[in-house]
Amino acid sequence: MTRFHVKKGEEVVVISGADRGTRGRITAVHTQKSRVTVEGARMNRRHMRKSQHHPQGAIVAREGSIHISNVMKTDVFDARAAKRGGAAAPAEV
Asked: What is the mean pLDDT of residues 41-58?
């Protein structure tokens, strides 16, 4: 079993791709494919047919998976931004 730098429940930042800069919690880790599901990132629309839950049918937005190399822990991201003098750096008095 491979070891990853993030795990389920941790707060991460998407550092690459269309959802770059999005922050969210990891809801699932797919170890076989080296992918994670981050809440609020890579939203896909799924057309649902009629059922008891959706009597008229519906278009439901769900999170897709992101490769694990495209996410970083928020504390590491903020520390890197502060070191470089980025937007996350605290203001000096």
From this structure: 93
